[in-house]
Design goal:
Elements lengths: L7 E5 L7 H13 L3 E4 L5 H10 L8 E5 L1 E3 L5 E3 L10 E4 L15 H8 L2 E4 L4 H12 L4 E4 L14 E2 L2 H10 L2
Parallel strand pairs: 1-2, 1-7, 2-3, 3-6, 7-8, 8-9
Antiparallel strand pairs: 4-5
Amino acid sequence: MVFKQRKVVGIMGSGQEPWQEFSIPLAQWIARQNYHLLTGGGSGVMAAAAAAFCQVEGRSGICIGIIPTELNEQEHYIPLNGYPNPWVELSITTPLTRFNRHNPNQIVRNHICILTSDVIIALPGADGTKNEVNLALNFGKPIILFGSENAMNNFPETIVKTTSLELVKSFVLNHG
């Protein structure tokens, strides 16, 4: 049997706002390319992208979620409330937290999201997304910002920012 590695495309973004005008067509395209989709497994962009990806008939890639946890009273790691979203097909539960605003250098599940992805598309988001963008830069991962211009103002100027799905598709096809 010959095993062919599929590209893992990471979509990072807001855990609150789904940015459906960007996340849905992007995730549907990723599914049609038979890539795997990786998100943080939560709500917002992550849920919108996962749902759109999973609704594409005939896809052969899977929807992967990197799940943050907390310790319960029995000292077992359990997913944080709201994780994983219902569309995650492969849930990777980590003992790592989402993001530590007080110590942005702490190893968190964002490291796994970035290091597992072959190429990263960041949609608008807050501190966690900014952390993922910076990790992608630090680890030399191909990354592009996809979203409205005013929502991407606080991200590094060195990264390509676009509202064009066609440019994002070209970027993904040429990287990873």
